[in-house]
Amino acid sequence: MVLTRTFDEKAVALQRTGRLGTYASSLGQEAVAIGVASAMRPEDVLLPSFREQGAQIWRGVALKEALLYWGGDERGSAFKEQKEDFPVCVPVGTQFPHAAGVAAAFQSRNEKRVAVAVGGDGATSKGDFYEALNVAGAWKLPAVFIINNNQWAISVPRSAQTAAETLAQKAIAAGMPGAQVDGNDVIAVRDAASRAIERARDGGGPSLVEAVSYRLSDHTTADDARRYRDEKEVSAHWKEDPVARLRTYLVSQNAWSKSDEETLIGECVQAVGAAVDEYLSAGVANVGDIFDYLYARCPPDLAHQRDEAVAFARESDDG
Amino acid sequence: MGEITLVEAVRLALARAMEEDPHVIVLGEDVGADGGVFRATEGLLQRFGNMRVRDTPLSESAIAGVCVGLAAQGFRPVGEIQFMGFIYPAVDQIVSHASRLRNRTRGRLACPMVLRAPYGGGIHAPEHHSESTEAIFAHVPGLKVVIPSSPSRAYGLLLAAIRDPDPVVFLEPKRIYRAFKEDFADDGSALDLGRCFTLREGDDLTYVTWGAMIMETLAAADDLAEDGIRAEVIDVATLKPLDADTILRSVDKTGRLVIVHEAPLTGGFGAEISARVAEGALASLLAPVRRVTGYDTVMPLPKMEHHYMPSKVRILKAARETMEYA
Ligand SMILES: Cc1ncc(C[n+]2csc(CCOP(=O)(O)OP(=O)(O)O)c2C)c(N)n1
Ligand SMILES: [Mg+2]
After folding, report:
1. I want to staple A147 with a disulfide (CB 3.0 to 4.6 A). Which of A133, A210, B111, B252 is the partner?
2. Which residues of chain B neighbour A53 with C-beta distances below 8 Å?
3. What is the CATH number assigned to the segment(s) B2-184?
4. What is the second-level CATH architecture of the domain B197-324?
5. How far apart are the CA of A14 and the nearest CA of chain B, in angstroms?
6. Are B225 and B217 in contact (CB under 8 A)?
7. Which tens digits make up the pLDDT trace of B285-314?
8. Which residues in chain B have Cβ-Cβ distances shorter than 8 Å to A70?
């Protein structure tokens, strides 16, 4: 959680200084990402939205890769360590049906693995969300759908998104269990996610977990939430800061000291700093890359265009 | 003194249309308090209230489908799709319903709706925020497809689209939302849909383009002029219904045609224009038709985006090669 927060802070700073593209911080929602990712086994598959960098990092996506992606470089999704997880999903809610497909593959091969998709409260308004839940329920797939309910979808508050009392209850119509959990309590999130994931692994079918958290940051670096959201509401939610809550709990259990804290922060800052250095010195890919990964083999018709693009880049000294 | 940007022109046209006609309503994601992510609807909520400026849930299919229902009931809905890359969930509603409602009820019901969406690349936006897929919509019978390329044309064409009795997909080139300003009277005058705009006259060569690519194309025409080559520059503006006459007449005059668009080559709307010219002005051609377009690749992320976008250099090169034919 601290690493995620350190990473988010740095990413926002890089964007502000023109060294990263538009970025969606997960400030205040770290417990959702980490609670879920820590409940998964390595062989499970994660299908994240664009705000679950914490879960991605936990599961082996390199900090440098995350920076590359948000810096506008496709190489950032060519994960070196993490082989099967899906890349960031930008079109809201479209990752949910993929999770059903991944889960169908596990089911077909009789594997005890689980597909875990994470999306936002806004994403639960999408047809893709309902369609994915429905097929997962109908086929009793080993899939878990996690909703990071950060209570805002850009400027649209949760109350305007749906008249449903909870998002968890959207599971009922698909014939699966739905649970609501305190998304600012990493232990609770991990517990709820573990139950759902282990149930799916044991053949019990899919389920939905709504983790209620709060978006403490702007929607992205391109957004200014003061246009539509009362600052007082934000300050009030800082009281539920999941990182502070975990720290308080650990301290009360005599399991955490000031020096632990300092060491941890030092390590996180160091790791993020090193990743930033790697990212900034990664250079740019060759122009041919925009053609080379489109198909298994570049068709001759496209190869002509590739040649032209390479020639233009060379002429403009930019290849 | 140019005062109005393209995005402001959109807002002025929306406000004007809402003022004139109580049936005009605006709906979409974040169009209310936020004023739209590009601020195209800023201030409308305060002015017209939340029955006429509606924030929708995050559901593009619902946005388009609700527009169909409203339009059938005599409203003039203007739906906003936040970025063109997110229009695809709405395609079923657009293709299977909006475009066909009049025809399949033999005119009993109609669909006078507008779907607006910012489109196009070159602003270093995240994945799925930069594509140009206008040809998909131009292919659909019953739809009109309009792309303004300046503030005054955005104003006049959007008013026309809203007043039009049929569904219009209105694509706004976001790269030039704030690129330059123009002065014009906010007097509610619409421009004609279905008409190309000749931005510059010339006898030697015809450039045909639309959207943000008018910038590079006009710049290329400037360079050609320095060499004494006078290029005519046509902004298509309404892809469908296409004003082929203006293009054919120009090609009859110049004998040389270079089509420029940001969208990929294969099946891009340039192919349609090229075919029209082959059918209607072949005898006038002095050189093969050229297309300068995006490549047949996925729109690259920002670091490689400039390789994809047709540059002035490419647009110039095509023109010069075209001029080499005697
Ligand atoms: C299909 C689609 N429509 C619109 C957008 C633009 N958009 C990006 S994020 C977002 C809000 C998402 O809200 P939510 O699902 O609650 O996730 P959060 O951003 O709060 O994490 C919108 C409208 C998009 N990316 N995809
Ligand atoms: Mg949200």
Report:
1. A210
2. none
3. 3.40.50.970
4. 3-Layer(aba) Sandwich (3.40)
5. 15
6. no
7. 999 999 999 999 999 999 999 999 999 999
8. 126
